[in-house]
From TrEMBL:
Keywords: Hydrolase. Residues 45-247 form the Serine aminopeptidase S33 domain. The keyword Repressor does not apply. It holds the Pfam family Hydrolase_4. GO terms for molecular function: hydrolase activity. The keyword RNA-binding does not apply. This is Alpha/beta hydrolase.
Length: 318
């Protein structure tokens, strides 16, 4: 029913986009944007990909790899990110991660209308957190066949004091002053290691994924803190889950070549510790030399990522 409403995407054909209007919120009009790879396989297997924080979908190679393995590929720019960000909105600004459920519901409805009977929900970083929450709570969670999580954001990367004192305090402030802005805390070196204008190999829109990340709001901090607690307290997932992550992290105030071969955003040990708690059918796989967004790692590492991912999908889903 939606097929005639697609338009050429900013990535160029054969990528197309479909705007999904949503109900207005505390900032006004809201939309999300579904991107699909046209001329994909006409089978019934599909993947729906959710990007991370300070991010949007631009990973064309990943889309084509899914297509080569028989999956129809879709990606969702969530509300207030990338293609979906409207002039009156603060980037990334939500007060509860469940606000994204309507975006995912609308996207899944399109996939069903287009004949996708087996859907894998995939998410990177914050998108991985949202995917795991949706698989636990979302109204269409029963339609999902599996989760594929790329370095999911299951805990703040700060130290004990920040996580147990500063973050809960900020979350409390977020209840009273949700639009109070604070600087984003991602190191600029991670972004610099990615974009070809700096030290990286990738080209993407720096207005949608800036090297110096967008400011965050106290309401967003509260939403993440609450989501972490809710996921850890929630029921175990029953569907199969693959969690992929780097084998080590890099942090520091200065530039290091390690940003090309380690996770420069999250603490790998948090992912290793918390991922098995998601359910009884969780496979946790370490990728040597991977960066935070594993599919943006150097080529030989990316090949390991895709080999692990598609081997697992074939073994798990056939």
């Amino acid at each position: 029913m939606h097929t005639t409403s697609y338009h050429p995407d900013v990535l160029g054909l054969p990528f197309e986009q479909l705007v999904l209007p949503q109900l207005p919120d505390y900032e006004g009009a809201v939309q999300s944007t579904l991107v699909r790879l046209r001329n994909s396989t006409h089978g019934t297997k599909a993947v729906l990909y959710l990007h991370g924080f300070n991010d949007y979908f631009f990973q064309e190679e990943m889309a084509r790899r899914y297509q080569e393995h028989g999956y129809r590929f879709y990606a969702l720019d969530l509300r207030k990110y990338g293609r979906s960000l409207l002039p009156h909105q603060l980037a990334n600004n939500v007060r509860d991660l469940r606000e994204y459920y309507a975006d995912i519901d609308a996207a899944l409805a399109v996939l069903r209308a287009e004949g996708c009977a087996m859907v894998i929900l995939s998410g990177h970083s914050t998108g991985g957190l949202i995917a795991a929450l949706y698989a636990q709570e979302g109204s269409q969670r029963h339609t999902l066949a599996a989760l594929v999580l790329n370095s999911p954001f299951l805990a703040f990367a700060q130290g004990w004091m920040a996580r147990h004192l500063a973050v809960p305090f900020a979350a409390a402030v977020g209840r009273l002053a949700p639009n109070l802005k604070v600087p984003g805390s991602l190191p600029i070196h991670y972004g610099a290691s990615l974009h070809r204008q700096y030290r990286g190999e990738w080209g993407y829109d720096l207005a949608w994924k800036p090297v110096k990340v967008f400011p965050i709001t106290m309401g967003w901090l509260r939403a993440i803190h609450t989501a972490h607690r809710r996921l850890q307290r929630g029921e175990e997932l029953t569907l199969p889950v693959l969690v992929l992550h780097s084998d080590r992290s890099v942090r520091g105030n200065g530039w290091s070549e390690e940003y090309f071969c380690a996770d420069g955003v999250l603490r790998v040990r948090d992912i290793e510790t918390l991922s098995p708690r998601l359910g009884k059918r969780v496979t946790v796989t370490s990728i040597a030399g991977g960066i935070h967004d594993l599919v943006l790692s150097p080529l030989l590492v990316r090949e390991q990522v895709y080999e692990k991912m598609f081997t697992w999908l074939t073994h798990t889903l056939g």
